[in-house]
Amino acid sequence: MSKEPRSRAGQTKRPGRAGREATPADETPIIHGAIPPRDVLLRFIADHPEQASKREISKAFGLKGETRVELKALLKSFEEDGLLEKRRKSLVRPGALPPVTVLDITTRDVDGELIGRPAEWLDDAGVAPAVLIRQSSGARKDKAPVAGLGDRVLAKIFPAKERGGPAYTGRVIKVLDKKKNSGMGVFRTMPGGAGRIMPIDRRGDEMDVEAQFTAGAKDGDLVEIDVVRMGRYGLPRAQVKSVVGSVASEKAISMIAIYAHGIPHIFPDAVIREAEAAGSATMAHREDWRSLPLITIDPADAKDHDDAVYAEPDTSPDNPGGVIVTVAIADVSYYVRPKSALDREAQKRGNSVYFPDRVVPMLPERISNDLCSLKEGVDRPALAVRMVFSHEGRKASHTFHRIMMKSAAKLSYQQAQAAIDGAPDDKTGPILETILKPLWQAYKIMTVGRNRRQPLELDMPERKILLKTDGTVDRVFVPPRLDAHKLIEEMMIQANVSAAETLEKKKQALIYRVHDAPSLAKQEVLREFLQTLDISLVKGGNMRSNHFNGILAKVADQPFQEMVNQMVLRSQSQAIYSPENIGHFGLNLMKYAHFTSPIRRYADLIVHRALVGSLGLGEGGITPDEEAVLDDIAAEISTFERRAMAAERDTVDRLIAHHLAERVGEEFDGRVSGVTKAGLFVTLPEYGADGFVPISMLGRDYYIYDEAHQALSGEKTGLGYRLGDTVRVKLAEAVPLAGALRFDMISEGRKMPTAVRSFHKSGRRKGGETRRQPGTRPPRGRR
């Protein structure tokens, strides 16, 4: 018989199977069939995440009839108080790790046990929680993989049952990446022809390189190394394997991000051989749509084209004024089959990663840029969806088809937009009336439906970096947002919706793209902030995207527009992949799955396979083995997506820091983009770069942090800084390898609103603290 888990105090047994109960002397008795005390219920949820659905909780405590209704109301109150968050069908404590998490094993504890931390963790979420890795022993050695220091693993997470150690324990499901005795660093020349490797991150070690192992590296080169000896005394020794190039070049900077985040960037020989051996698709199980003039519209520098579109009026008398929109997507599932070398590598990468100078693709170029790229005038296999819309923008029906197509034209966004705006060129002129104008008419109709749906409409300009020929930054700019962009975006969204609807109707397992509503805790932070601007936010758990749109409309063209957009963005949950559907809050859609980019996203490839299999469209369908592990796949690719975003962001930060390194001491106009207890984050709009102003550099006053107002305010002067304030700063330090900028504040703070100043007198209020800030001296009498 298995033992019941013990409480953290070592006294109370938890309810497990129905009928078990405990009555410790120092706690309210737990009566089987009655609602347990609040603290017992919260502790049970924290300790049993796998039993944290309402059904499992009822079963554990033997609740039936009216007591289940009481339980539902109690759990709802926990959510409203911010004590619990809903994930899928279960309840978890805020900030809790998901049941399956990708961990990096970073160190050992005093007992020699391995300790891991989440591979990706938001900076504003505090220190990433530690997880004690439980290795299999004895008879279980052959059942679970053995992990080591430096490995990246997929692990099943359990709350720790013992106090005083990590909050979680983990059981390794799969070792994703084994540590290798290799890495990167910056080469520095030493006397006698020898060298020293300087680490590219703060946790790395310096290493010595003997003269015969420098491989011609020059001072300041970024190099790949092999560690050849780790002794007890002295620095580790390494040898240079290859020279990437000067650390001043952008190529080197993106390689730092690739290595730092552990992004696979070299395809194994078996994957390349499999890709090169692939041949052209046949017409088996395909409809011949080569006469339909589908076209691709992409960025001007795009090398792969995985989606094509076409639109025409619906001639059916049952749909007057309606349109038919066709979206064709490259048929990657034909070439990348389950359990093949290509498939294993694609799953390992999860998605393509985009840097200013390069792309780390999910699939080899033979597949992504050739066989699966919908090239102009070339036969290509595709999976197409044909969607019928009414004149009111409502989707009446849709059907999926496995086809052979031939793109009629390859256009850039700017090219297509110019033609619609009255400036066609030699390519767009002949297709303006027959292809482009019908597409724009369809988009106009679809916009009616989009406006009725009211997805979240954040106004956050996306900055792009233009590089010089030597790979350094030329300029940073915000490209215009064209109707051509919006047209393709809306057609792709509707294709994704159609994929989810079809698979649900077929009762086929799939991976959804889900986006949860903002947590009640984040809603409350936003609500308090908006109150400082005399803007109200509706209360309750029934928040919809149009509530946020109303707020964004109120602040349009106001001085604090960007500040409010930032705060609304921060209040949002993160979109993830999941086999459980909770809808997509931001798009205001109940059913949504990524279908339109299988060249660069593994989730889309899974959806393609699910469609092929459930609709009987031939080879390459989803397998039962894949269906059984969709939870694990979704967890992995969600983590890999965050990994890619972090690597891309870090590269941009390093690029800008390198670009500004020679301008230390200069002054810049900036905007306060973040307020913390330790200081201010300031963005330079001209560069899209963030830097930090420590609180000690704000002045001699004693500064108090008020979360509700997103402000730091001087206690004596009443002057301070708020999110969104325009300020003047001086660049004090730039660290290119870390991508870090530090500023000194030049601008004097402005007079804080009465509500902020009154906070000082009260001493403490929800969301704010008056304790001494790092780097400041307390006023007299506060020592």
TrEMBL record:
Region (Disordered): 1-32, 754-783
Keyword annotations from UniProtKB, A to Z: Cytoplasm, Exonuclease, Hydrolase, Nuclease, RNA-binding
Cited Pfam families: CSD2, RNB, S1
Catalytic activity of the protein: Exonucleolytic cleavage in the 3'- to 5'-direction to yield nucleoside 5'-phosphates
InterPro entries: CSD2, NA-bd_OB-fold, RNase_II/R, RNase_II/R_CS, RNase_II/RNase_R, RNase_R, RNR_Ribonuclease, S1_domain
PANTHER family: DIS3-LIKE EXONUCLEASE 2, RIBONUCLEASE
Family designation: Belongs to the RNR ribonuclease family. RNase R subfamily.
Function: 3'-5' exoribonuclease that releases 5'-nucleoside monophosphates and is involved in maturation of structured RNAs.
NCBIfam families noted in UniProt: 3_prime_RNase (TIGR00358), RNase_R (TIGR02063)
UniProt name for this protein: Ribonuclease R
Organism expressing this protein natively: Shinella curvata
